[in-house]
């Protein structure tokens, strides 16, 4: 039988070997151009060899904002990564999800290329997510987060990165900003998506019962106690979201910290620990540093939870998303109420833009629900349809015909209205802001925006 030196394998045997492998092989040279692209890789990426070979990788494929190509990173940074999930798109717009081992190729101490070994999980991920979302109530995904403004898109990209690991996540945001929506989206985008998602509002349960709810009970621990798993055991293999963690009693926070550190839970009344595999997410509706200073949040627990920290912007800081949010709620309540509301007048929109939205998106939804309850057959929301508190608080001009765009009309109205209020308050910024029902910082932003002195 003929044998070959491993360093002298004929090219046809080498190509045959590459094409028989059940994993994708992709190799680029020092310039980032493809020099090896096997059959399995072509199948995974639904690309012909001539579409990829001798071409710059970044000219052929596009990658999500949350991360660049693992193969290019291996080349540029000399970085080796193992079992890293990556989602990207081919030049036809097809989404591809893979698990990659990527590493640089060295010669004489210099990086001369990079190689990637790839397993395709695209269809597997689709099937798993479809099945999980059908079986569970955790139906929120990143695609359902509404908004295109810079503040919200930035935090979405940060949240997407958190799907790659099982590290703890602390989500900070005011009431009504959608913290649980982000938590569910992270869970459903992670490798734990097929596991349970368990959520508990810590402020909703009395301190005397919360320990039993979290850790479970053993029969006989107290009168009427039965063997019952706690939230940690229920969430085993998945994710546990603790909403308003800052409302949890300090002694319970200490016990929670122990579970996070040891990954073991002991039921109330039991003497044995049980191992649990749970990803912890927590939310707080106040600045965690303020909560620590006011002893509502233990510093050691904060450090344990805040491996990844997401700050969800309030609606007033992403007010440019208002048209998208309004349309979403119009569509939702059109279906529920059998109505046909199609839009909103510039005057009504301007009023909504002035509002501070202390309750954020949740308050906006309730406002639109209330507004549509006051409508009969109308298809356009006017100021008269808005709830009474808006009509009393904000004045609005009569509608006038104009060739201006909606955005121009709204901005012109806002500018005139602020000028009017400044004049009424003799130019005093603090009094004007209070009169408008917005913060001084928010008013200063609008003064700068409209170039008002």
Please give a structural write-up:
Residues 145-373 form the Sigma-54 factor interaction domain. It comes from Salimicrobium halophilum. This is Arginine utilization regulatory protein. This protein has 453 residues and is α/β, with parallel strands linked by helices. It has three domains: 6-120, 2-Layer Sandwich (Beta-Lactamase), CATH 3.30.450; 130-311, Rossmann fold (3-Layer(aba) Sandwich), CATH 3.40.50.300; 317-449, Helicase, Ruva Protein, domain 3 (Orthogonal Bundle). The protein is 42% helix and 18% strand. The protein has 20 helices and 17 strands. It has helices at 11-20, 39-45, 49-52, 57-60, 70-77, 122-135, 150-161, 179-188, 207-215, 231-234, 250-262, 288-293, 299-305, 322-337, 346-354, 360-373, 388-393, 406-424, 429-436, 440-449; strands at 24-29, 34-37, 62-63, 81-89, 95-107, 110-120, 169-172, 197-201, 216-217, 228-229, 239-243, 264-265, 274-275, 279-284, 308-311, 343-344, 380-381. Strands 2-1-6-5-4-3 form a six-stranded antiparallel sheet.
